[in-house]
Design goal:
The chain is mainly alpha-helical. The protein has one domain. Helices cover 87% and strands 0% of the residues. The radius of gyration is 29 Å and the shape is rod-shaped.
Length: 137
Amino acid sequence: MTSCLPSAWDLPGAARTVLTVALAVDFFLAAFFLVAVFFLAAVFFLAVFFLAVFFLAVAFFLATFFLATFFLATFFLAVVFFLATFFLAVVFFLATFFLAVVFFLATFFLAVVFFLAAFLAVFLAAFLAMELSFHAA
């Protein structure tokens, strides 16, 4: 089956240049945005893990300090405090982990939408290039 539309190689020089530049810009922007998304997701992930580990370290330090200071009389209080801070740290970690996953998925879908929009722009540029070639002929 043959097409009535010319291929990109049949376009005149100016139209082919427009199409080539549009394609190059499209792929550069898509790659840049994808790299930025993965970089931001990685930074956010590292921040989440750092905060979770820091919160766990503070919880363990406070619990052991509380245990060492009031060993006999408040042993059960220290255990309760330790368990409470441990579960708080786990909840904080899980909440920030799911926030990081949501942030990553949102930015990934934004990257996909941006890539599709840029891809559509390339097709519009190709259509413009073909229109230019038809009017030039």
